[in-house]
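Try this one yourself first.
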Protein backbone atom coordinates (compact mmCIF):
# COMPACT_ATOMS: atom_id res chain seq x y z
CA UNK A 1 0.00 0.00 0.00
CA UNK A 2 1.44 3.35 -1.05
CA UNK A 3 -0.44 5.62 1.32
CA UNK A 4 -1.90 9.02 0.37
CA UNK A 5 -1.19 10.37 -3.12
CA UNK A 6 -0.83 13.92 -4.44
CA UNK A 7 -0.57 15.56 -7.86
CA UNK A 8 2.83 16.88 -8.85
CA UNK A 9 3.34 20.20 -10.64
CA UNK A 10 3.31 18.24 -13.89
CA UNK A 11 -0.07 16.60 -13.22
CA UNK A 12 1.38 13.19 -12.35
CA UNK A 13 0.24 11.24 -9.33
CA UNK A 14 2.95 10.59 -6.75
CA UNK A 15 3.11 9.58 -3.11
CA UNK A 16 2.42 12.43 -0.68
CA UNK A 17 5.39 13.65 1.30
CA UNK A 18 5.25 12.55 4.92
CA UNK A 19 4.51 15.33 7.37
CA UNK A 20 7.58 16.62 9.12
CA UNK A 21 7.74 15.66 12.73
CA UNK A 22 7.91 18.55 15.12
CA UNK A 23 11.37 18.55 16.62
CA UNK A 24 11.36 18.10 20.35
CA UNK A 25 13.61 20.55 22.11
CA UNK A 26 16.53 18.87 23.81
CA UNK A 27 19.12 20.09 26.26
CA UNK A 28 21.91 19.71 23.68
CA UNK A 29 21.48 23.15 22.09
CA UNK A 30 21.33 24.90 25.46
CA UNK A 31 24.33 22.95 26.70
CA UNK A 32 26.35 23.80 23.58
CA UNK A 33 25.61 27.53 24.06
CA UNK A 34 26.72 27.36 27.71
CA UNK A 35 29.93 25.50 26.78
CA UNK A 36 30.67 28.09 24.10
CA UNK A 37 30.08 30.93 26.59
CA UNK A 38 32.45 29.34 29.13
CA UNK A 39 35.14 28.58 26.52
CA UNK A 40 35.16 32.23 25.42
CA UNK A 41 36.12 33.17 28.97
CA UNK A 42 38.27 30.27 30.15
CA UNK A 43 39.24 27.89 27.33
CA UNK A 44 39.59 24.18 28.11
CA UNK A 45 38.05 24.42 31.58
CA UNK A 46 34.65 22.82 31.03
CA UNK A 47 33.93 19.10 30.68
CA UNK A 48 30.79 17.11 30.06
CA UNK A 49 29.77 14.26 32.32
CA UNK A 50 28.67 11.28 30.25
CA UNK A 51 25.14 10.77 31.51
CA UNK A 52 21.67 10.15 30.19
CA UNK A 53 22.44 8.08 27.12
CA UNK A 54 20.44 4.88 26.83
CA UNK A 55 22.65 1.84 27.39
CA UNK A 56 22.17 -1.87 27.69
CA UNK A 57 22.04 -3.09 31.30
CA UNK A 58 25.52 -4.60 30.93
CA UNK A 59 27.01 -1.39 29.54
CA UNK A 60 25.29 0.68 32.24
CA UNK A 61 26.79 -1.57 34.94
CA UNK A 62 30.23 -1.20 33.35
CA UNK A 63 29.93 2.60 33.27
CA UNK A 64 28.88 2.68 36.95
CA UNK A 65 31.85 0.45 37.81
CA UNK A 66 34.12 2.95 36.01
CA UNK A 67 32.75 5.88 38.01
CA UNK A 68 29.58 7.10 36.30
CA UNK A 69 27.16 8.39 38.91
CA UNK A 70 23.49 8.61 37.93
CA UNK A 71 22.11 12.07 38.60
CA UNK A 72 25.43 13.90 38.24
CA UNK A 73 25.17 17.34 36.64
CA UNK A 74 25.80 17.66 32.90
CA UNK A 75 28.85 19.95 33.02
CA UNK A 76 31.74 20.69 35.34
CA UNK A 77 33.45 24.07 35.05
CA UNK A 78 36.90 24.24 36.61
CA UNK A 79 37.16 27.99 37.17
CA UNK A 80 40.33 29.92 37.78
CA UNK A 81 41.33 30.15 41.42
CA UNK A 82 40.44 26.51 42.07
CA UNK A 83 36.67 27.06 42.06
CA UNK A 84 34.45 24.36 40.60
CA UNK A 85 30.87 24.80 39.38
CA UNK A 86 28.62 21.84 38.60
CA UNK A 87 26.01 22.78 35.98
CA UNK A 88 22.73 20.95 35.38
CA UNK A 89 21.18 21.87 32.03
CA UNK A 90 17.42 21.62 31.64
CA UNK A 91 15.09 22.84 28.92
CA UNK A 92 12.71 25.60 29.92
CA UNK A 93 10.12 22.91 30.69
CA UNK A 94 12.53 20.28 32.08
CA UNK A 95 12.31 18.70 35.51
CA UNK A 96 14.96 17.19 37.77
CA UNK A 97 14.86 13.44 38.31
CA UNK A 98 14.92 11.91 41.78
CA UNK A 99 18.54 10.82 41.15
CA UNK A 100 19.53 14.36 40.15
CA UNK A 101 17.93 15.92 43.24
CA UNK A 102 19.79 13.45 45.48
CA UNK A 103 23.15 13.83 43.70
CA UNK A 104 22.91 17.64 43.80
CA UNK A 105 22.12 17.43 47.55
CA UNK A 106 25.23 15.28 48.09
CA UNK A 107 27.44 17.69 46.12
CA UNK A 108 26.11 20.74 47.97
CA UNK A 109 26.55 19.01 51.34
CA UNK A 110 30.21 18.46 50.37
CA UNK A 111 30.56 22.22 49.76
CA UNK A 112 30.26 22.26 45.97
CA UNK A 113 28.36 24.86 43.98
CA UNK A 114 25.62 23.31 41.84
CA UNK A 115 23.66 25.43 39.37
CA UNK A 116 20.43 24.20 37.82
CA UNK A 117 19.41 26.27 34.82
CA UNK A 118 16.33 26.13 32.63
CA UNK A 119 17.56 27.11 29.18
CA UNK A 120 20.92 28.57 28.21
CA UNK A 121 19.93 32.17 28.99
CA UNK A 122 19.06 31.23 32.58
CA UNK A 123 22.29 29.27 33.06
CA UNK A 124 24.48 32.02 31.59
CA UNK A 125 22.75 34.63 33.78
CA UNK A 126 23.53 32.51 36.87
CA UNK A 127 27.15 32.06 35.79
CA UNK A 128 27.57 35.78 35.12
CA UNK A 129 26.19 36.50 38.61
CA UNK A 130 29.12 34.52 40.06
CA UNK A 131 31.47 37.26 38.86
CA UNK A 132 35.04 36.82 37.61
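Now uncover the answer:
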Amino acid sequence: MLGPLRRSAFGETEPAKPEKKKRRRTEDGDQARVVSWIREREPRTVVRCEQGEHRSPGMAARHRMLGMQPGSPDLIWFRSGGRTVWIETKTTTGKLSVEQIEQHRILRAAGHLVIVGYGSADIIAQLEALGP
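Discussion: The chain has a mean pLDDT of 85. The two ends are 63 Å apart (CA to CA).
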